Amino acid sequence: MGKKVVHVEFPADDLDRAQRFWEGVGGWSIRDSGMPGIDYRMYQEDDQGGALTGRGDMTQQVNIYFGSDDIDADLAKVGELGGEAGQKQPIPSIGWFAACKDTEGNAFSLFQSDESAQMPEGMEPPS
């Protein structure tokens, strides 16, 4: 089976307005993620979810995350096939993600669930 979309980020200029829109259209219950220092509002439906984020906070465009069973192998494959693969980054106690681009410059991300993921020693999470 191919990769599944597991998370989508929608950038917004007005998070309250975007939340009302996506709750109405998507039927999702969107709540604050609780991440300190960032207004990142999430929804979760079974094994798929998404978030609203300020346009300047993380991305200027919709970002799609594909699930990965082996993020290191998938990042190597992205590079082998001519895309751009960023370094994997931890989401402490949740997993790993990495920003990538395909051969046409389209942004996407990979995500691997891993509850043992932690910030490298001496590195602080973004505030």
Summarize the topology:
Blueprint: E1 5-12, H1 15-26, E2 31-32, E3 40-45, E4 48-54, E5 63-67, H2 71-80, E6 84-85, E7 89-91, E8 95-101, E9 107-113
Parallel strand pairs: 1-4, 5-9
Antiparallel strand pairs: 1-5, 2-3, 3-4, 6-8, 7-8, 8-9
Describe this structure in words.
Strands 1, 2, 3, 4, 5, 6, 7, 8 and 9 form a nine-stranded mixed β-sheet that branches. The longest helix is centred in the first third of the chain and has 12 residues, at 15-26. The protein folds into two domains: 9-56, 2,3-Dihydroxybiphenyl 1,2-Dioxygenase, domain 1; 68-127, Roll (2,3-Dihydroxybiphenyl 1,2-Dioxygenase, domain 1). With 127 residues, the chain is of the alpha+beta class. It is globular, with a radius of gyration of 15 Å. It contains two helices and nine strands. The protein has helices at residues 15-26, 71-80, and strands at residues 5-12, 31-32, 40-45, 48-54, 63-67, 84-85, 89-91, 95-101, 107-113. The model has no long low-confidence stretch (mean pLDDT 89). The termini are far apart.
Briefly, what is this?
This protein is α+β, with helices and mostly antiparallel strands. Helix content is 17%, strand content 37%.
Which key phrases capture this entry?
37% strand; 2,3-Dihydroxybiphenyl 1,2-Dioxygenase, domain 1; alpha+beta; 2 helices
Work out the helicity level.
Answer: 10-25%
Main sheet attributes: strand count, strand direction, barrel closure: 9 strands, mixed
Would you give the CATH topology of the largest domain?
2,3-Dihydroxybiphenyl 1,2-Dioxygenase, domain 1
State the end-to-end CA separation: 37 Å
Give me the strand/helix succession: EHEEEEHEEEE
The CATH superfamily of the largest domain is known as 2,3-Dihydroxybiphenyl 1,2-Dioxygenase, domain 1
Which architecture of the largest domain does the CATH hierarchy give at level 2?
Roll
Derived from helix and strand composition plus strand pairing, the structural class reads alpha+beta
CATH structural class of the largest domain: Alpha Beta
Query: In DSSP terms, counting alpha (H) and pi (I) runs of 4 or more, how many helices?
Result: 2
Strand element count: 9
Proportion in β-strands: 35-45%
Radius of gyration: 15 Å
